Every structure is written in structure tokens, then in C-alpha cells.
């Protein structure tokens, strides 16, 4: 399995579906960035969820695949954020077994940095 396919599988494993939103908050972006980073770092754990049937590609929230593909290709994906179903991303993130131990601290860290940057502008 090549890296791009593995990364997409990991991101898909980290998702559940819902309706897309058009209002994007700093916290929404922090959750998405944290899950993409975590999926890249802990790819095997996400793949185990897919292979065990706990999560599937069909659970991918709207817009996440497009963002993931641009992120993997080092493209700017900011214009795609309004197409992401952040309610679905939030549902997926909070349901993962490592949410409290790994994801929440990373989300809070990213969110704090984004808030500090927004305050400086």
C-alpha cells in the first residue's frame, strides 16, 4: 500500500458522516489538523480500525477526503474548509479510543496557537 493510499485510509478511518457546514471555527480547524497529524503519526492504529471493521471509508464526512488529498500533496486546502462536515469530524474524533489521551491535548494545543495568532492580528 503506497503512502497516499495509507494516509487516505487513515483519515477515512478517523471519520463519520453528517451534513456539511459553512461556518468554520478555529476549533473546527484545530480538530481537523489534529486528526490529520495523528493519522499520519499513528497510521497503523487507524488502519487496524479499518481492518477490524470498526470504521470504514463510507463513514468519511463530506469534504474530508478533498482536504486530505490536498494536504498529502502539500497544497493549500483552506478554500475547501467550508465544504467539510465538521459535525461529522467532531463525532469521529470524540469516538476514537485515544481521544482523551492523544487527540484532545493536540486539539487544545493547536486551538490555543490559532487563538493567539488571531488575537495578534
| DSSP summary, beta strand count | 0
Assess the beta-strand content as a share of residues: under 5%
Q: Let me know the largest β-sheet.
A: none
Rounded mean pLDDT is: 80
> How far is the N terminus from the C terminus?
43 Å
Return Rg in Å: 14 Å
SSE map:
Layout: H1 3-13, H2 26-41, H3 43-52, H4 64-72, H5 86-95, H6 99-120
Helix pairs in contact: 1-3, 1-4, 2-3, 2-5, 2-6
Question: How is this structure best described in words?
Answer:
- Helix 2 packs across helix 3 and helix 2 packs across helix 5.
- The protein is 64% helix and 0% strand.
- The chain is mainly alpha-helical and 121 residues long.
- The protein is globular.
Can I get a quick summary?
The chain is an all-alpha fold. The chain has helices at 3-13, 26-41, 43-52, 64-72, 86-95, 99-120. Helices cover 64% and strands 0% of the residues.
List the main descriptive attributes of the protein structure presented here:
121 residues, mainly alpha, 64% helix
Amino acid at each position: 500500500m503506497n503512502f497516499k493510499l495509507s494516509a487516505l485510509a487513515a483519515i477515512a478511518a478517523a471519520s463519520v458522516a453528517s451534513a456539511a457546514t459553512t461556518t468554520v471555527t478555529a476549533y473546527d480547524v484545530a480538530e481537523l489538523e489534529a486528526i490529520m497529524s495523528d493519522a499520519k503519526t499513528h497510521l497503523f492504529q487507524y488502519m487496524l480500525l479499518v481492518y477490524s471493521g470498526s470504521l470504514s471509508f463510507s463513514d468519511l464526512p463530506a469534504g474530508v477526503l478533498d482536504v486530505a488529498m490536498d494536504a498529502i500533496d502539500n497544497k493549500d486546502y483552506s478554500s475547501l474548509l467550508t465544504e467539510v462536515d465538521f459535525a461529522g469530524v467532531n463525532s469521529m474524533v470524540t469516538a476514537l479510543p485515544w481521544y482523551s489521551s492523544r487527540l484532545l491535548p493536540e486539539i487544545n494545543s493547536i486551538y490555543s496557537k490559532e487563538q493567539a495568532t488571531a488575537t495578534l492580528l
